[in-house]
């Protein structure tokens, strides 16, 4: 999970993403403080770091980071099928791992390249899945797929219109190491891609110059709301207003 220090949140460090989902707008009712919340979050983080994994992701360099070149085509299909979190009607939602590109060059393993096999694996027959909404290669997150072209087209228009109107369509929940100074507000941050040890990471840029912006640094804006706190941690709802979400 990407670590970002956000001044607007009191310099809190994100321990891990809990959940991401599609939403039409901001707003979640604040939950009462739970004294055991932070302790349980830290225990989960420690267990995740020390647990042994089995399956096609064993040889990946970092937990949660996928290297498609280390997988066979069938192994990638198996990974994506295991990542499905919801299947209802023509819609399929899966949790795409970091490092998996949506598109790529001919012959490369990408999300798009294995959609025919994934569709068959999910019992959709000739109704091949297509991408409605997806995060980039450098990030993990929910991908929305549809086996109905008309449904896909309507949803894509909705997301495009909402993005132009700066209405949030995606909701994330994250656990922070530290409690934000304010219970809700906005986060403005400049981000860029940085190549570290053969892996692209999204990292914050302090006080970006005009040259930085021309070289690809992106200014971002997100809503945040503290949902629960405990043991020095906070559960925070995040809704991006910029970027693909």
Order of helix and strand elements from N to C terminus: EHHEEHEEHEEEHEE
Helix content: 10-25%
The chain-level structural class is alpha+beta
- Rg over CA atoms: 19 Å
Mean pLDDT: 79
Oligomer: single chain
Query: What's the N-to-C terminus distance?
Result: 15 Å
Number of helices: 5
Can you count the beta strands?
A: 10
Question: Which of globular, elongated, flat, extended, rod-shaped describes the shape?
Answer: globular
Low-confidence spans: 1-7, 22-33
Strand content: 25-35%
In the sheet with the most strands, the strands line up as 1-6-10-9-7-8
Keywords:
single chain, 245 residues, alpha+beta, six-stranded antiparallel sheet, globular, disordered N terminus
Task: Describe the protein in words.
The structure is a single chain. By secondary structure, the chain is an alpha+beta fold. Helices cover 21% and strands 33% of the residues. The chain is built from 5 helices and 10 strands, in the order βααββαββαβββαββ. The strands form 2 sheets. A 6-stranded antiparallel sheet has the order 1-6-10-9-7-8. Strands 2-3-5-4 form a 4-stranded antiparallel sheet. β4 (130-133) and β5 form a beta hairpin. α2 (73-82) crosses α3 (115-121). The longest helix has 16 residues, at 149-164. Residues 1-7 and 22-33 have low confidence and may be disordered.
In short:
The protein is an alpha+beta fold and 245 residues long.
């Amino acid at each position: 999970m990407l670590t970002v220090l956000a001044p607007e949140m009191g310099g809190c460090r994100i321990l891990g993403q809990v959940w991401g989902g599609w939403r039409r707008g901001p707003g979640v009712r604040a939950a009462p403080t739970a004294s055991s919340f932070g302790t349980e979050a830290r225990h989960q983080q420690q267990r995740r770091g020390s647990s042994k994994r089995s399956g096609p992701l064993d040889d990946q360099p970092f937990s949660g980071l996928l290297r498609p070149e280390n997988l066979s085509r069938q192994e990638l299909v198996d990974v994506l099928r295991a990542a499905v979190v919801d299947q209802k009607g023509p819609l399929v939602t899966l949790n795409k791992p970091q490092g998996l590109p949506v598109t790529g060059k001919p012959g490369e393993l990408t999300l798009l390249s294995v959609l025919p096999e994934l569709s068959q694996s999910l019992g959709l027959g000739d109704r091949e899945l297509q991408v409605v909404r997806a995060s980039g290669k450098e990030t993990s997150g929910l991908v929305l797929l549809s086996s109905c072209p008309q449904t896909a087209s309507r949803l894509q228009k909705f997301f495009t219109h909402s993005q132009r109107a700066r209405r949030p369509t995606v909701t994330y929940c994250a656990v922070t190491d530290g409690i934000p100074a304010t219970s809700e507000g906005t986060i403005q941050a400049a981000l860029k891609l940085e190549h570290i040890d053969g892996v692209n990471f999204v990292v914050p840029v302090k006080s970006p110059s005009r040259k930085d912006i021309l070289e690809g640094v992106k200014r971002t804006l997100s809503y945040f709301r503290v949902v629960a706190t405990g043991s020095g941690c906070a559960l925070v709802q995040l809704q991006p207003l910029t970027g693909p979400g």
